[in-house]
Design goal:
The complex is a heterodimer of chains A (about 450) and B (about 280).
Chain A (H helix, E strand, L loop, with lengths): L2 H10 L1 H31 L2 H7 L2 H12 E9 L6 E4 L14 E3 L5 E4 L5 E4 L3 E5 L8 E5 L5 E3 L13 E3 L4 E6 L2 E5 L3 E9 L17 H8 L11 H10 L6 H33 L7 H16 L2 H12 L3 H25 L3 H9 L4 H40 L2 H11 L3 H29 L8
Helix pairs in contact in A: 4-14, 5-6, 7-8, 7-10, 7-12, 8-10, 9-10, 9-12, 10-12, 11-12, 12-13, 12-14, 13-14
Chain B lengths: L5 H42 L5 H7 L2 H13 L3 H36 L8 H16 L2 H12 L3 H25 L4 H8 L4 H40 L2 H11 L2 H30 L4
Classes of the chains: A alpha+beta (about 450), B mainly alpha (about 280).
């Protein structure tokens, strides 16, 4: 077909083509409107402000801290005795100092990094050596007033490489994210980052500090007691759960609490939702007044958000498990009740009639005429709610109900345990995925094949 | 079954009784587990000393009553408080709308890519599915709090978090919808030499569009709730106002905000049901 033919067709069926044309115009118009909306919204979201506040170093440090740990070397000029500690904790001082801190021949201490970079500390100076791409070594000293400066750059700080920042009271050296030295008038702080989650299994002061997970499991079946008087399996378990850096015990307990919130909340909703749904269904409930009251009750329970329920219960029960359980239970009694009452109304009338014809009582008619029809929907919906409630329980937890949500919020707000943040995020993800899979499996197993698609 | 004889009846009956007994046992186990969990929960709550369980019930009405009392003291002036918080409500609704819009768009793309019947490459399908699973599994709050920490207090982190969750949740539903379509229009298009994009545009989208749209509306309602909650942890909007008022214990303002929220959520609920009813008819 040529262009002329098309033209001919178009001329013959003007109405059809005009309709298509109008459809295209509407689509283009909609796209333009949406774009306009996006632009206006982005202005409302204050992109400029966000960009101004965005701190790349902070973000990079946050990311680094998720998968790396740091050792601190702190060193006071006057005492001249470098002290190495894990994450700067007072209780976590390495004794003796690790191998990467070595005394040099000329009365100094060298802090060696895996990248080959060396920070060397002397009585009166700190020297930065072996930085790749650097043309020289940099020496940092203190002037008469005790202020740190970079030797040779006092008058021209702008000539320093960009990884050295010299201000009046502080010189910061940061060749890469993994090495950092801050020189002050009184002391020097060196951060040495290494990859991994250190002390994840056993914490600093534990008798099992340097034992790996597999080794620990092996140890559990070993009769030679590491600590006299405690069986090894007990020691391993308590040392692991009471790890003060990672708090496995507390976190597992919080995770369990969150799960319990979701399970009990959903159970509560199913327990009250189903009977109430019967009372609200047109074909079952005998009294219109009760029906009406129940429907409004569902609307009320559902319309008041889970957030508001949790605030009300927070006042009544205080922070704790039952705040979450009732917030979930109340909201979902409304949702589930409404859903089930619709399912009951849509149930096949003939099965009830069949029951009636055999002389069954009203109760028996419902029990054997309706419940078998709606049970698959009920079970699968309850399981769906359980899945989404696992997520909700985390959220309500952070609002104050407790559980893993609150722990997560706490770790994030402390502002320096980002590896714990990552750990908890991972556990939350794992919990949600496990519950999703379990409920999916249960759904498929409980619902007979021919009804799988409901 | 037609050759069932009388001898088989007692076999059948025995089997039936056996099954009934088995079911009874399962029911008892379920009830037992539930009671056990409830007991564990109550002891845990009591142990944490977070307020007694029984006292909690008697306290249940204290807070609402307190709120309403404070509101009645205000009289008609209370409505001005409602008006005062309306702009914040709109900022929350805008957050929800924006993230629903973006989430919807990406979810359509990823949902199609995760559907086995329209994408040949098994790798693309598997990767997209895993990505959707992860986006869906994180509660919005987890993303939002991390982003809020990094980007400072503003609406944007919450919008990003809600968008990511929306993509995951809608993407999965969309891919399931695409997998359940009638394949014949697709085959027809393929036979006439349509490109992949044309197949999607004319073979897939017309079939699933109403369903997508109704899922999107449902998601909008959920996102308004989510945006409010994220406001609570510092993302701005009406959630933040609510959190402030709760700290200051201004009962009348708290009730005004709650009123606005319930009104919005309920009307969105009715609106989305009405539109869904118009678009896909009774079966929804």
């Amino acid at each position: 077909m040529t262009a002329v033919d098309f033209q001919a067709i178009e001329n013959r069926h003007k109405r059809v083509f005009r309709k298509a044309q109008r459809g295209r115009e509407v689509a283009v118009g909609a796209v333009v409107l949406v774009l306009l909306y996006v632009v206006v919204s982005l202005m409302q979201f204050d992109l400029g402000g966000v960009a101004r506040r965005w701190d790349a170093t902070r973000a990079a440090l946050f990311t680094l801290d998720l998968y790396a740990y740091k050792d601190h070397v702190s060193h006071e000029w006057d005492a001249f005795e470098p002290k190495v500690s894990f994450e700067g904790g007072h209780r976590f001082v390495y004794e003796p100092a690790p191998e990467w801190l070595a005394a040099t021949n000329d009365n100094g201490y060298a802090v060696n990094f895996d990248s080959g970079i060396q920070f060397v500390l002397y009585q009166d100076a700190a020297v930065v050596k072996n930085v790749p791409d650097a043309t020289q070594e940099y020496e940092i000293k203190r002037d008469g007033d005790g202020r740190p400066y970079v030797v040779g750059f006092q008058d021209r700080p702008e000539d320093l490489p960009e990884w050295i920042i010299a201000t009046e009271n502080r010189v910061e050296v940061r060749p890469s994210l993994w090495e950092r030295m801050q020189v002050y008038g009184r002391k020097i702080e060196i951060h040495r980052y290494s990859f991994g989650w250190n002390y994840f299994w056993f914490d600093f002061g534990s008798p099992l500090t340097n034992v790996g997970p597999l080794e620990a499991i092996g140890l559990m079946f070993d009769d030679n007691q590491v600590v006299r008087g405690t069986p090894n399996h007990e020691l391993v378990a308590t040392e692991f759960l009471n790890n003060s850096l990672w708090q496995h015990g507390n976190i597992f307990m919080a995770l369990f609490e969150t799960l319990l919130m979701a399970v009990l909340g959903t159970a509560l909703a199913s327990m009250f939702g189903l009977p109430l749904a019967f009372l609200a269904a047109r074909n079952v409930s005998p009294f219109p007044v009760i029906r009406f009251i129940n429907r409004r009750l569902f609307d009320l329970l559902r319309g008041i958000d889970m957030l508001i329920w949790s605030l009300i219960f927070l006042r009544a029960f205080g922070p704790g498990l039952f705040t979450g359980v009732f917030a979930i239970g109340f909201t979902d009694t409304g949702s589930l009740g409404k859903l089930m009452s619709e399912a009951i109304e849509n149930a096949d009338r003939r099965q009830v009639d069949g029951m009636k014809s055999t002389g069954a009582s009203k109760l028996q008619q419902h029990r054997f005429g309706i419940i078998p029809q709606i049970l698959p929907i009920f079970v699968s919906q309850s399981l769906y709610y359980l899945e989404s409630n696992t997520r909700s329980a985390v959220i309500i937890g952070a609002m104050g109900a407790g559980g893993i949500g609150l722990q997560f919020l706490g770790a994030l707000q402390t502002g320096n345990d980002f590896e714990n943040v990552a750990y908890m995020a991972f556990l939350i993800l794992a919990l949600v995925i496990i519950i999703d899979n379990l409920s999916g499996r249960l759904r498929r197993a409980l619902i007979r094949p021919e009804e799988r698609h409901t | 079954m037609s050759d069932t004889t009388y001898q088989n009846y007692d076999v059948i009956e025995r089997r039936l009784n056996e099954m009934a007994r088995q079911r009874l046992i399962y029911t008892l186990i379920t009830i037992g587990v539930f009671v056990l969990l409830m007991g564990v929960g109550i002891t845990m709550a009591e142990e944490n000393n977070a307020g007694s369980f029984s006292r909690g019930f008697t306290n249940f009405f204290d807070y609402p009553v307190d709120l309403f009392e404070q509101t009645f003291e205000y009289g008609w002036g209370w409505w001005s408080l409602v008006l005062k918080h309306t702009p914040e409500l709109f900022s929350t609704i805008n957050m929800a709308l924006f993230s629903t819009l973006f989430g919807f768009t990406f979810a359509v793309i990823l949902g199609v890519l995760a559907a086995r019947n329209v994408v040949q490459s098994k790798i693309v399908v598997a990767v997209t599915r895993r990505a959707l699973d992860i986006m869906r599994s994180f509660p919005e709050l987890v993303f939002a709090m991390i982003l809020l920490y990094l980007m400072g207090r503003s609406l944007l982190p919450a919008v990003i978090a809600v968008t990511i969750h929306t993509i995951g949740a809608l993407g999965k539903l969309f891919s399931e919808a695409v997998e359940n379509i009638d394949d014949r229009p697709l085959e027809g298009l393929r036979a006439s030499g349509a490109s992949w994009f044309q197949q999607i545009r004319f073979g897939v989208l017309p079939q699933v569009w109403p369903l997508f749209f109704s899922y999107g509306l449902l998601r909008m309602e959920i996102n308004v709730r989510a945006s409010t909650i994220l406001g609570f942890v510092g993302a701005g909007g009406i959630g933040e106002a609510l959190s402030t008022m709760i700290q200051w214990r201004y009962g009348a303002e708290i009730l005004a905000i709650m009123f606005l929220l319930v009104l919005t959520i309920t009307s969105l609920d009715y609106l989305s049901r009405y539109v869904r009813f118009r678009m896909i008819g009774e079966q929804s």
